[in-house]
Amino acid sequence: MKNHAHRYAAIAAIGHRSSDRWWRQRRELEVKTDKEFTPETAVKTMLESREKWDAVCSYVVNVLKIREEEERQRQRVQRQQVPADN
User: Fold this and answer.
1) What gap in Å lies between CA 40 and CA 31, rounded to an integer?
2) Which helix (H) or strand (E) holds 84?
3) DSSP 86
4) Which candidate, 67, 42, 36, places its Cα nearest to that of 57?
5) Cα angle vertex 27, ends 24, 3, to 5°?
6) 47 CB contacts (<8 Å, ≥6 apart)?
7) pTM, rounded to two decimals
8) CA atoms of 23 and 37, how far apart (whole Å)
């Protein structure tokens, strides 16, 4: 279980490094866990309770979904900008 927590903490760092971008989601997480959320506090927070584990997991999944969708959109735009070879 702790190994999974470390993986989520590493992924959560993505949301923390882009702090302005994810501030609302991170603030909601902090309210749910009653803790300031940083990559350094992620594992300890997750291991405190099932509810906190679930809250951190939800945060990470949400950040990843948004990032993946943005990447797909970026790739679509890129494909549209590449001229077709005739």
Assistant:
1) 17
2) none
3) -
4) 42
5) 110
6) 1, 2, 5, 53
7) 0.70
8) 10
Tens-place pLDDT, residues 40-50: 888 899 999 99
Please give the Cα distance from 66 to 64 (Å, whole number): 5
Tokens 């900008």 locate to 81
Please name the amino acid found at residue 73. Q
Q: How far apart are CA 63 and CA 42, in angstroms?
A: 15
What residue type is 21 in one-letter code?
Answer: R
Q: Say if CB 37 and CB 26 are below 8 A apart.
A: yes
Predicted confidence (pLDDT) per residue in 5-23, tens digit: 666 666 666 655 555 778 8
Q: How far apart are CA 70 and CA 34, in angstroms?
A: 30
